[in-house]
Design the sequence.
């Protein structure tokens, strides 16, 4: 029986995608190296090491692609099989939202909801425990850093924190 | 005689109350992260890297070193009692350690692991004291060509030993070099890959990269599965091994110590390889190899001694050559750099207090660890019951705060989150972050030494092969690069491949 999770020349082959991303990055590094000037072998310029590292990246990425085509590789879906894939995605979404909120809202107003969401989303902690932790831990950390260690944390548009 | 005077000077530094406190905090946190599965010494050290800013260089580095060797002790507790390795170097201890615990011999397993670790740790320190100054005096004669070749060898060895395909590991190392080169060129002061962002002029910080790749990514990976624990609940008694246990363990401890120390010195090697190699050696030497896997005490004594000896040995290339042999040492190099210090051949002569202070603190730390890990074992067992659904969100909050405090810059928090997400997808696709981080640290030094050697030799590439040390390093690197192409050697590589990130 054919293994459905190991494919060769298919767009779902995760190894192929990894190699292609590496190849694109390598191409970009080569281009950046050329733009920065290579210099000569007697006096290498700023782009010298970048250029040759880019070439090496393309070689290694090419080798990954060739092996993906000839030997096949696991599908993208199989990489997330039998795991709770939604959990890391939720954490990533929370972190992305936090990074947008940190500067406008400040540390306290952004970290309390972040912690509460994480406590409830990963493996739900009961509300009676999650709320005190989400409020007390960031507030405590803020107090220690700001009052004791005199570290200025982002206070946001509202000046809270 | 000089060594004794230096050691006395070192103890003078290490016994200062503030350094004792930092040493205790280091070994305590080390044991803690060693005990807790999912959080390794790399995550903990990256989390605490900003904390080193607040004290003297001695205090900060003593604490960071304590976390490393402390985690080697703590890792065995989880392996023996829960059958989950607390950190990567304790994977092998699970095999026989947990079997011993199931047979009601958790006490001797924990005991021999702590005593073996103590003996190996102490031996590694004595050897470090004797070897490091001699190697440093030789290393003064090293030129840029030797440094370049040594760094290439370090990167190749690490990629060789990393799990998964070698092209992937090499690609990661190249990406690490490129990331390390972001910012102003150290020779021409030309901005590189800054995309017009002022924040990138000084380059990307080590702290956000490591915290993202190891801290955040580790949490993301761990959230995928509910962590199940099979804790041995019986009361742990008889921690002191019997006479028969000692008889069976003396050889493995001695061999593990020597092997671990030698493997620890090698660039790219380290505690994980040492523990696997020691287990394989003991099984091969044993008259009754069939007992291995069914609770043989030699299977605990050897690897546990080896990983602690390797942790001590790994300090030698960092302290004498300024080249970190593995990711943990790269973080320690970061701590040195944060304090404006450059480890290398001149460190021992220019900063004797720092070098000998760190070495002496490691003696003290080893004694602290013995006390922490034997009489207080019950406390660590209780800790294994800590709920992860509370721990993981807190780790994320601490990483955010840690990154922000290290630079007072919100941009670094964004960098960390980005690297956390990238690190998660990298791991899912089978790309290990360890070569990337080591190359990130070595990248600027590698470039600098390459360009310097080319300028000095007026573009003559033969300079790398005409110098014996450089030629030897490059030849070995070449052999390791070719090795995976040969089926027999590829199999060997798969056997010793390690997961540095764990």
Sequence:
């Amino acid at each position: 029986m054919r293994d459905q999770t190991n494919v060769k020349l298919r767009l779902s082959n995760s190894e192929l995608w990894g190699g292609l991303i590496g190849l694109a990055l390598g191409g970009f590094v080569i281009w950046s190296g050329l733009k920065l000037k290579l210099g000569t072998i007697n006096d290498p310029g700023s782009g010298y090491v970048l250029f040759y590292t880019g070439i090496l990246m393309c070689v290694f990425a090419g080798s990954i692609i060739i092996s993906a085509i000839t030997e096949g590789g696991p599908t993208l879906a199989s990489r997330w099989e039998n795991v709770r894939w939604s959990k890391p995605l939720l954490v990533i979404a929370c972190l992305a939202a936090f990074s947008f909120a940190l500067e406008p809202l400040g540390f306290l107003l952004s970290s309390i909801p972040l912690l509460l969401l994480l406590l409830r989303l990963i493996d739900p902690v009961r509300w009676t425990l999650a709320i005190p932790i989400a409020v007390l831990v960031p507030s405590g950390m803020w107090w220690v850093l700001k009052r004791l260690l005199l570290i200025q944390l982002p206070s946001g548009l509202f000046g809270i924190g | 005689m000089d060594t004794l005077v230096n050691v006395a000077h070192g103890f003078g530094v290490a016994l200062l109350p503030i350094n004792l406190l930092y040493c205790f905090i280091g070994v305590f946190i080390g044991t803690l992260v060693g005990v807790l599965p999912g959080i390794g010494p790399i995550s903990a050290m990256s989390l605490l890297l900003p904390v080193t800013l607040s004290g003297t260089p001695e205090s900060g580095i003593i604490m960071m070193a304590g976390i490393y060797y402390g985690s080697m002790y703590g890792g065995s507790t989880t392996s023996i009692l829960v059958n989950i390795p607390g950190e990567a170097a304790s994977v092998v201890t699970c095999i026989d350690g947990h079997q011993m615990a199931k047979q009601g011999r958790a006490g001797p397993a924990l005991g021999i692991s702590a005593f073996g670790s103590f003996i190996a740790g102490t031996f590694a320190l004595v050897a470090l004291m004797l070897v490091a100054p001699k190697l440093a005096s030789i290393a003064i004669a090293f030129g840029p060509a030797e440094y370049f070749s040594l760094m290439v060898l370090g990167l190749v060895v690490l990629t060789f030993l990393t799990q998964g395909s070698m092209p992937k590991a090499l690609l990661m190392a190249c990406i690490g070099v490129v990331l390390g080169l972001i910012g102003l060129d150290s020779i021409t002061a030309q901005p590189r890959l800054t995309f017009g962002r002022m924040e990138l002029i000084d380059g990307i910080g080590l702290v956000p990269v490591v915290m993202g790749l190891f801290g955040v990514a580790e949490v993301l990976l761990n959230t995928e599965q509910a962590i199940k624990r099979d804790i041995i609940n019986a009361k742990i008694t008889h921690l002191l091994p019997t006479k028969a246990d000692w008889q069976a363990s003396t050889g493995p401890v001695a061999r593990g110590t020597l092997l671990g120390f030698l493997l620890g010195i090698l660039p790219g090697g380290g505690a994980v390889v040492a523990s696997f190699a020691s287990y394989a050696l003991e099984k091969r030497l044993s008259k009754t190899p069939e007992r291995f896997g069914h609770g043989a005490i030699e299977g605990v004594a050897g690897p546990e001694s080896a990983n602690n000896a390797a942790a001590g040995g790994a300090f030698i290339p960092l302290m004498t050559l300024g080249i970190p042999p593995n990711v943990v040492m790269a973080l320690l190099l970061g701590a040195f750099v944060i304090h404006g210090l450059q480890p290398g051949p001149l460190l021992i002569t220019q900063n004797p207090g720092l070098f000998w202070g760190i070495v002496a603190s490691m003696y003290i730390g080893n004694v602290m660890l013995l006390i922490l890990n034997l009489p207080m074992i019950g406390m660590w067992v209780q800790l294994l019951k800590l709920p992860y659904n509370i721990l993981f969100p807190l780790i994320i909050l601490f990483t955010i705060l840690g990154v922000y405090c290290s630079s007072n810059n919100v941009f670094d928090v964004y960098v960390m989150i980005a690297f956390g997400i990238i690190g998660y997808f990298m791991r899912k696709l089978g790309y290990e972050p360890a070569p990337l981080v080591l190359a990130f640290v070595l990248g600027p030094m590698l470039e600098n030494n390459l360009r310097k050697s080319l300028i000095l030799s007026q573009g003559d590439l033969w300079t790398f092969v005409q110098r014996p040390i450089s030629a030897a390093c490059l030849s070995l690197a070449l052999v390791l690069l070719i090795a995976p192409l040969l089926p027999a050697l590829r199999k060997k590589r798969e056997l010793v491949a390690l997961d540095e990130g764990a």
Notes: Residues 238 and 310 of chain B are 28 Å apart (CA to CA). Chain B is about 70% helix and 0% strand. Residues 106-139 of chain B form the longest helix (34 residues). Residues 498-502 of chain B have pLDDT under 50 and may be disordered.
